[in-house]
Amino acid sequence: MQAAVRLSSLIALAVAAPAVVVPSAQAQTTPAPVDLKASLDRLLAASYSADAPGATIIVTKGGAPIYAGARGLADVEAGAPLTPDAVIRIGSITKQFTAAIVLQLVAEGKLSLDDTMGKFFPGYPAPGAAATVRQLLNHTSGIQSYTGIPGWMVAANTGRAFTTDQLIAEFRDKPAEFQPGERWNYNNSGYVLLGGIIEKVTGKPWYDAVQARIAGPLGLRTIRYGNPPTEADWARPYTRGAGGIGAAQAIDMSVPQAAGGLVGSVGDVAKWAQALHHGRVVRPDMYKQMIAPTRLNDGTVNPYGFGIANGWVRGVADLEHSGGIFGGSTDSLYVPSQDLFVAVFANTDAPQTRPGTVMRKAAAIALGKPYVELAPVTADVAAIEPMLGVYRIGGGPDERRFLARDGKLWIRRGSQAPSEVYFAGDGRFGLRGNSLTWFRVAAGEGGAYTMEMFQNGEEPGERAIRTGPVPPEAPAITLPRATLEGYVGKYALRIGEATVAFGAGDTLTLQISGQPAVALEATGPTEFRAARVGADITLDGKTLTIRQAGREVSGPRAQ
Questions:
Q1: What is the arrangement of strands in the sheet containing 316-325, beginning at the earlier edge strand?
Q2: More confident of the two residues 26 and 269
Q3: pTM score, two decimals?
Q4: Measured by CB atoms within 10 angstroms of the end CB, which terminus of the chain is less buried, N or C?
Q5: Phi, psi angle pair for 57, to nearest 5°
């Protein structure tokens, strides 16, 4: 359940004082080294407040827990704290379970990875009918993802129950995004269809297959379908809106279905990972295909396999997957060479710190390769000013812009949204918002400045050379209020409802549902920019178009 464009700036959120983390009886761990426990306690306390929705975490080595913790509240209204055993919506980590069952059925000869959609869904329109099971698994089917249909992800849809056939009908006749195998594009519809295939082959709901084939045999007590959320171990799902912390948007778990409809605890997902990666779930030849990168028709390779992606943490290869859903944000990784697993689950879709950031920091600590820790220091403006400018990356056409605006420092790559930067001394700069990314600027030979960017804190850094100052932006203009009034209203976008309204004076603001409003500056009669988030906006009275980070989303005026 992911959005294509998000109008949000990277703002670091304050956190409260540390709280003592006490694993519950069901999450007792083997003794961990004092320095590891102390380091992870500090990490958790620095990442989440004790008096707000928070997160749970587990770290295992060789399948044995070496750390389990929780920080924050499972029930804000009741003041009930999270425990490591809390059951949280795991979102798209569900896809691993769905993929594994499909591979089990392939191994049993009940279907083939090369079977086409048309075999299971007669009459499904082309070109989707020609997409194979394999292409559903690796997100190359080209079928329209229902979570990307403009205006679809509203409470009126997400809050009601669907049968599998009813949910498929929501996207079945939508135009394909591309021919099967032509491109890679993350696709929730593909996994709904896989859930439907499981149901047709097994004769039972996809989630019953999860229970019968995985959760039951492996003793995963908390891994279950998310309907209904009535058990005592359930952590309530939250979001953060203009009014502060509140209940997350309603979502019946028949909506995320086999793409994201499971719930569970970090401990049980750790047990699942240990079983999956040690041959106790799918046959070795099937597992090999599950974790293999995807090769497209033109030979291009994408790191995603079947419900799992290949990645890196501190230079060590890992296998990972995250999840995002109303009321939940999760991330997990497994390092095969170290038999190390880390998972962080938040019971909110607007966590103070992204679970993926905490997960990577925890994994780095466990690997003995902690990330560089930076802290803001008072900036020497005179010393920093010569460093600002355009930096060419690796001698190619790509560039980064390091600039000052509104008394703050920003870094921006190409058309991506700018990220606010803080000075950390000795030519080092960190990105705000609990980011792991940082960079160093130094004077090279001949006095030319070079920039070394450590994306996600990984080494070696990406090198760029300063080519000159940042060119001036197009000046803002003032439009008549009568013209602006023609743009005010609500617009239906696939990422949510967008509201254009008047801000201070004769200026407009844009707000996507669930996000803060951003100010718009007019640069032309129908052109605007949201400088704070690096987005360009077009309004013509009928349609709203947002271009941000190389992506574009449009939607019609709803009212």
A1: 64-71, 55-61, 340-346, 328-335, 316-325, 309-313
A2: 269
A3: 0.81
A4: C
A5: -145, 145
Tens digits of residue pLDDT in 120-173: 999 999 999 999 999 999 999 999 999 988 789 999 999 999 999 999 999 999
Phi, psi for residue 362 in degrees, rounded to 5: -65, -45
**Secondary structure of residue 168 in the 3-state scheme:** helix
CATH class of 88-309: alpha beta
Other beta carbons less than 10 A from residue 110's beta carbon: 14
- φ/ψ of 475, rounded to 5, equals -70, 150
Multiple choice CATH, 481-556, 3.10.20, 2.40.128, 2.160.10, 3.40.50: 2.40.128
- As a whole number, mean pLDDT of residues 83-111 equals 97
Those residues whose C-beta lies under 8 Å from the C-beta of residue 482, and which sit 6 or more positions away, are none
Interatomic CA distance for residues 366 and 368, integer angstroms: 5
For residue 444, give the amino acid letter: G
Percent of the chain with pLDDT over 70: 92
- 140: helix, strand or coil: coil
- The gap from C-alpha 289 to its chain's centroid, in whole angstroms, comes to 24
In CATH, the number for domain 381-468 is 2.40.128.50
DSSP per-residue letters across 380-423:
-HHHHGGG-EEEEETTSS-EEEEEEETTEEEEEETTSPPEEEEE
Angle among Cα 339, 343, 345 to the nearest 5 degrees reads 170
* Nearest alpha carbon to residue 254 among 212, 233, 225: 225
Tokens 């009212």 sit at which residue?
559
Phi, psi for residue 289 in degrees, rounded to 5: -70, -35
Q: Do domains 381-468 and 481-556 have the same CATH topology?
A: yes
What does residue 420 show for φ and ψ, rounded to 5 degrees?
-70, 140
The rounded distance, in Å, linking the Cα atoms of 99 and 134 is 10
Listed residue (513, 518, 539, 547) closest to 530, CA to CA: 518
Question: Measured in whole angstroms, how far is the alpha carbon of residue 242 from the centre of its chain?
Answer: 22
Amino acid at the residue 128: G
Q: In whole angstroms, what is the distance from residue 160 CA to residue 484 CA? A: 37
